[in-house]
């Protein structure tokens, strides 16, 4: 449903509507649980948003959103992960249902209300496995600005490991199964992704002719990351040029043979009967394999890690416990140890092993 901005500006003023536009649109387009939104409901959302900005605690935010939800018809909750599968023993599944956000925690509303609604409705459920071999729980959807609110056994979660540009790093393993990438280009690409600087190549190209300080570097990087996700999943060159010509030009300039490899990656028919690239599913299989191996290793030290796609979180208390078991001086040292574990398992991924992972069912 489109928002009639002129109508809203008449009622609330241009400056307020401009400030709230993204948040309103986000709630309308992404809140899958609301049955049918009439125009009056947009006013409701604006009023809810205004109340949320005045909240001081998590409990205040939850109460307002719950009252809002009670006045709307909820759809089938299974729509969130409708293609879920049984989780096999080779995939590590943490007890996500034991994660909580204490209501008394101080918190200011920072948008992304739909991710909080998802948490409210489903945080007590166990994780599900999607058809791309990724786990899903509201923890995976909750906006980054709210993750620090989550606790496990009374201790806040903190990041144990985060792999930068993991998708493109894992593509190195797929390239080993192909002879289509030019050698020098592959070497440059390998250095860039192993240093976690893949997105920066595109940001630097986009900003090189712009006045310094005109754009926020982090915001541009987030937008580039989002656009590259769409870019890599398009298999039609005409559509690729139509939707992402600027990104494509940068790809052609720096990684021409990798660009062609991505464009012509094998396609399959998904569970909804649509033709899609296998690329997303293949890289998710490799990601799940690696992260599961690390998590199983961590559990041998008596701690409970929580995977978040290409990252791992643990409670602060258990991070300290792990540091003590490893005889390391600080949590930062322990984070480096976990990252080293990732690189160890990454290097052990031989072409034959990769082939077996990609050809197996989750």
Give your account of this protein's structure.
This protein is of the alpha+beta class. It is 56% helix and 8% strand. The chain has 17 helices and eight strands. Strand 1 and strand 2 (135-136) form a beta hairpin. Helix 1 (5-12) crosses helix 2, helix 2 (14-30) packs across helix 3 and helix 8 (166-175) runs antiparallel to helix 9. The protein is globular. Residues 30-40 and 71-82 have low confidence and may be disordered.
What percent strand? 5-15%
* Secondary-structure element series: HHHHHEEHHEEHHHHHHEEHEEHHH
The rounded distance between the terminal residues' Cα atoms is 36 Å
Strand order of the largest sheet: 3-4-8-7
Structural class determined from secondary elements: alpha+beta
Cα gyration radius (Å): 22 Å
**What is the overall silhouette?**
globular
Number of strands: 8
What is the residue-mean pLDDT, rounded to a whole number? Answer: 84
**Number of helical runs?**
17
**Largest beta-sheet characterization:** 4 strands, antiparallel
**Low-confidence sequence ranges:** 30-40, 71-82
Helix residue percentage = 55-70%
Topology:
Layout: H1 5-12, H2 14-30, H3 39-52, H4 58-70, H5 113-122, E1 128-129, E2 135-136, H6 138-141, H7 144-147, E3 151-152, E4 155-162, H8 166-175, H9 183-194, H10 198-207, H11 217-232, H12 237-254, H13 256-263, E5 267-269, E6 275-277, H14 279-299, E7 306-308, E8 311-315, H15 316-326, H16 331-347, H17 351-359
Antiparallel strand pairs: 1-2, 3-4, 4-8, 5-6, 7-8
